[in-house]
Records
---
Amino acid sequence: MVSGQGVHAELADAPHVGRIVIDRPDHGNAFTLDMCRQFVAALATLEADDYVKVIVVCGNGPDLTVGLDPEEVGTYHDRVDVPAERIPSLRARLRAAGEIFWGRDGLYGRLLTSQKVTVLAANGRCHDVGLDLALFCDIAVAGSGAEFANPRWQHVGVDGDVSMLLATVGRKRANELMFAAARWTPEQALSAGLVNIVVEVPDASAAALEVARTVSTIMRDGIAAEKYLTLAATEKMGIGAGFATATIMSAMSSTIHFRPGEFNFLRARRDLGVAGALAAAEQAKSLT
Amino acid sequence: MSTDTTLLADHVCLITVGDAAALDRRESIAGEQLRDALLSTSDDDDVKAIILAGLTTGRFAGLVGPQDAHPGTRASYSGTRGLHQVVTYCKKVVIAEVDGQVGPTASALCLAADFVVSTSQSTFASPFSVPEANYPLAVLTMRANRTKAWMFRGGELDARSAYEAGFVNELVPGKSLRQATTDLGRRVALMPLDGLTVSKMNIGAAFDVIGVGREFDATEASVAAGGASW
């Protein structure tokens, strides 16, 4: 892979610590669909390595990620092996949501069930996919300039899993992110329970690596057993069932109709291009 | 008691409870009026956010036990179309607006609402003296230890403590309260109606996975049997 164009796995500069790097800094580490698959592949590579006990997830550059690439939003159902139709079928939408994001082998499904301990270094914008990475990694360390949000929800509604968000930050706090377009500072994220540690510098990488070093002193079998125990607890909390719901809701949210006066990002992208659509999206958020 | 419904801003509706103390007396008509106002507003496609005001009662005078309650109490408060479930599973986003002393029934409605915006001098009576206060929903909102502490110790929670517990979203000065809830409603209303509907369904499905619906069913059965006693 060409550096700076995707997601890759590497060994970190600490014993038994691997690293997954989101490496597309010239686009704010925006996730393409290929990058979702690369993330899963990187995770699989490190999981298959018995030397690795802990995986640090981080971004290259000031942001963890700005979220899904706006060029590709709304097109993911074109990527599945279902006969193409002018309007994608529901089964194509369901299959895409499952394969790419919420299914057993999707980005979040694989991260949730990882057998290694995952530690997130949350720097800069942790939007959309970045918010979910904070939820599904085991431990999150935030830099002083981190910002947690999912601006896309305001345009299409809350697609994907909500059960982990509700369980992690509490229902009413979750509503702030879901319905009120809140952008949380690291301190707000810490208060809500979204992150474990906030450091006083913008780059949380060193602190995340230090956490990983500590975790790596646990014996391998202990880590594996504890991960299975947390997975069992997660299942009891209904997070697994939440992922099935997430697949359905993701597919449904790709079929929504817009009423007069409602901002339609896909139409704006078609009419104005990506940059114009993003500017229009910002304008649409204004209450004045 | 009367319940007023007015449009505050585009897609933002205000429902004002005329006599919140009547809810603590478990008057059927009071529960039905508020429930019906919520149902008809949530069925209106031009409404995306509902502000629920008039929830304060002054000093709490005591709940009426089920043996004294009107026979229609079960339908108006406890059942599938009872007041508390209507708020919890409302198709639109419900914002509770609070300025003053909140009695137990209104406190349980605040628990059921999506948002609570409060003045800092407000207080919240324990919702757990109301049969419909939903324990799984409270745990999902405030976490288990805080929920149990409030449940077993009773008493009022001041607004600051409620905010820190995750029961209240925002504390504002009294003179800014209506503006704060209206702005929050307008922000919610930026979401497309279809997206908002899917979002609320998504959240409702998550509630049911953790047992919110089953708890309501158990409450209804308990109220029907007169099982809860004061």
Note: The first strand of chain A starts at residue 6 and ends at 11.
---
Amino acid sequence: MTLKCEEAQELIADLIDDELSPPERAAVEEHFEGCSGCRFVYHSQLALKSAVHETGAGIKAPAALRERILHDPRVFRPKPGAFESPRTSKYLRPALAAGLLVLLTLPTLYLMRRPEAKPLSMRALEIHEKIIDGELSFVRGGSAEEIKETLSRSAAGAFAPMTYDLTALKLKAVGGAVRDFDGRKVLVTVYQGNGLTVTCYTFLGTESDAPSSAERVYDSVKKINFYIYSQGRIHAVLHREGKLICILASSLPAPALLDIARSGA
Amino acid sequence: MWRKTVTGAETQREKFACEAMTHLDDLYRIAVHLAKEPDQANDLVQETYARALGSYEQFAAGTHMKAWLAKILHNLFFDRYREAKRWVSTEEAKTVKDEPSDNWQRIPSKDAGPEGDILRRELSCKISNAIKKLPEEFRTAILLVDMEDFSYAEAAEILCCPLGTVRSRLSRGRELLHRYLKDYVEAKEKVLK
């Protein structure tokens, strides 16, 4: 069965919704092989459906709603066996529940402890590596200001990402990210250009966030300590400004990275 | 003896309730896009469960429970918010063309797991908002088929309309949604190709 474009396009929605019979499906797919126009329409519709589906997958019912329903007597009737003496039930049940929780939690916490949790400063290097290898997606934004604004908003205005003017290196801010490291919010700005990538991490912290093996360089003019450290091909410079810590990570040579950090501090 | 023997019917009812609870996220997703306020969505879902359990004997075992619950939810929404719905649809129709396009683009990624979830919530929020802006009849079709994976026949059953109507509502809804999310969909196309 050879389809015309109009016929094929009428079946595209049914194809992405898996509503076609096997012969119809085969006919549409055969048409796609020789028609880039219809293939484009198909990809476009598939992209939309996939975007809607992904959005839905991220939506979960709030725990409070679940609790409300679980305690709604119209849904789950209270069990008659649950009757107890009012004097004891008020205190005894929560106490038993708390005791049970402790008994269950302690071994779980013991088993789930992370003996080799890497410090944030080192994980920043790994993330940078994943970004340059294309293994990690981030969100591209329009201008540097837009990226900064979006990231600040993501931190609920508590702090803003540190920014750098890297036009001399033909680098510009191309995107942003927000990461959560053990409950600490980290704003990530990605600068790219000229085949290079510099990743800037901003978060609330202290100089103790620098790895103990880092080389400390004191800038007597700015009165700031800069900590230089590396892992494989990736170098990083960490410094503190007030309550904020900034880490610059890149495959640029460490002295060049230090210059960038100093210029923006 | 305080403990009362639980009857067979009671056990069956509780079993049904437990199974119905496995569809809570699905129902909430639909409700949150149908209702305008989070409180409305929560009430809608809770009432759906209350109604479903009130008439659980009517559910034919072995049939599609999620579809059955979705139908109750939709009917409830339709009954309860009918007036508001009419008002909203009129306003939405006016604002369709003025919607600014999304200038954020996803970058193709090998790893779409938690590591790649950066600012994803913001994008999801944009898509969610775009869905909420659709006129109700188109929105429901999109929610059921695209978000909840119901077949056309199931969606037609839930919406009490012919299958052809589901198809045309989907088509129109997708057209509008594509317009709202043009930039994002184009970026996504590149990933899928």
Note: Chain A is about 45% helix and 20% strand.
